Amino acid sequence: MQQSLFFSAFLFALFSCGQNFTNKPQQKSITQKNVMTKELWTLYSKQDTIFHVKRLLSSDTGLTLLSYDINTSEPEAASQTFISNKILTNENEATSIKSQSPNFNWTPHKETPTLFVQIDGSAFKDEMQALTVRQDIEQKIETALKSKDLGE
What we know:
The protein is of the alpha+beta class. Among the domains are: about 35-100, no CATH class; about 110-150. Helix content is about 30%, strand content about 25%. The chain contains 3 helices and 4 strands, in the order H-E-E-E-E-H-H. It has helices at about 1-15, 90-100, 125-145; strands at about 35-45, 50-60, 60-70, 80-90. A 4-stranded antiparallel sheet has the order 1-2-3-4. The protein is elongated, with a radius of gyration of 32 Å.
């Protein structure tokens, strides 16, 4: 008897805690339109550890000039601060802004490609043979890169 009373109380509590889904307000259907953007140009200016950036983007909605600063005084916690987001009327306005920014002439460092060559040591009879082959391959790659001034 005590079990059935406990079970009845449990069922009552379970049903009384349920939400009434019929009283929920109707959610509006939201459709998003994906806008494809293309970067037309980017200008950089460097001042100590602050990089000033101007980016011209083109999309279906028109031209947008983004201006922002990147603070790298603490490289592990670099921060970006947006200054403006300006809609431009035409490309002539963009060209005018670009020509009025002569101090934006800094070029970021070009990334140096790195080539990794891995040799499976189990393909050789011992570690010394693997080391000899590796050094031989390194020398050939370095000679080929240096001969064409492509790296070392």
